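@here heads up, posting the sequence + SMILES for the zinc ion run so it's all in one place. Ping me if the SMILES looks off, I pulled it from an old spreadsheet.
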Amino acid sequence: MEIRIIGCHGGETPRHRPSAFLVDDRIAIDAGSLTSGMDLPAQCGLEACLVSHAHLDHIRDLATIADNRCQKGCPPLVVAGTKETLALVRKHFFNGLLWPDFTKIPSVREPTIRFEVLTPERTHIIAGYKVRAVEVSHTIECCAFIVEGKSGALAYSGDTGPTDRLWEVLNGAGVKDLRAMLMEVSFPNREQNLASLSGHHTPRTLGIELKKYKKVKDLPFLLYHIKPVFQAEVEKECAKLRGLNLTIPKLGDHFIV
Ligand SMILES: [Zn+2]
Ligand SMILES: [Zn+2]
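bot reply: prediction finished. Complex structure tokens:
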């Protein structure tokens, strides 16, 4: 399984892009920078996008990728998320006001995007991968994802503060051959109050959280969603966490897991 880092930050500057990750160039996980970080053939090559929640930094490039794919006549892009998340995206985003309703353009029969509802903790087949959503703890409904291909599984935390169910699922017998996890951390330790209010981790809570996973020493964690303002500080604090396999990826990185 190949993971390509399109965007891995909790904000944007010319050197930072919001969350968007590619699995084998076929499935995107979140859409924070799908058009700012990918050229047209790659945008058109995508089969599906998993959406963890409806916050703008995770969905915003659905607008521009839909526009591009529509003009290029690409096949419908499957946009998969929970019922609540997709309802928010429909109501507030692709509502014919803020942006056109691309589920009806160019036609209802062959639209640009097609929503697919994910039931938490049930396995769905999306673009040939087994996908499971697990609810996590954020300010609005948000899900982690477990994506399982032929060569093992990948976990993605979504935006979350301390949470329990995700680790129960990852520790359970249902998850086979977990190869890596994309894990959020957003604020430095001195901004714990802001992190708690906004449903995010600091390095301190991350260190406690990861130990909920039984085989924590064996699993590579790719840390994402660091706020650009605090990048250096959060990196320094993460470097002090011992006994964990942590990597802070950069834009354009790719990992084979
Ligand atoms: Zn969020
Ligand atoms: Zn976010």
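MO: The pocket of zinc ion (ligand 1) is lined by residues 53, 55, 138, 159 (CB under 6 Å).
MO: One more: DSSP finds eight helices and 14 strands in the chain.
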